[in-house]
Amino acid sequence: MPHLICYDITSDSLRTKMGRKILEHGLDRINKSVYLGSITESSLTQLEALLSGLLQQKGEPHDSLIIIPVTAQQVQDMRVYGENGLDKDELTGDKSTLIV
């Protein structure tokens, strides 16, 4: 199922580490601190535990992490303005690749 993950983190090093972990779990960066992509429930559980743990250990009191489940239809209906190379089929996990 697609999920949207975003954060507001003060520390550059913590922000970088969290971003790297999200990318390692297969989500795509769609904005500076916003990620979107399909992720399995088990992988999401693991990622959420990791990110929330990092935030508790190294975050500031006003830092935040938000994880929102979205439907594939909501991703397809998303409107994007400006320069952005989003592939909505890839973000929803609906892209099929033909290997010849």
DSSP, total strands: 4
Task: Based on Cα principal axes, name the global outline.
Answer: globular
CATH A-level architecture? 2-Layer Sandwich
Determine the fraction of residues in helical runs and give it as a percent range. 40-55%
Report, as a whole number of angstroms, the end-to-end distance: 28 Å
Classify the beta-strand content into a percent band. Answer: 15-25%
Structural class by helix and strand composition: alpha+beta
Give structural notes:
The protein is an alpha+beta fold. It has 4 helices and 4 strands. A 4-stranded antiparallel beta sheet has the order 2-3-1-4. The longest helix is centred in the middle third of the chain and has 18 residues, at 41-58. It is globular and about 40 Å long. The mean pLDDT is 90.
Brief write-up:
The chain has 100 residues and is α+β, with helices and mostly antiparallel strands. It has helices at 12-24, 41-58, 72-77, 88-92; strands at 2-8, 28-31, 34-38, 64-69.
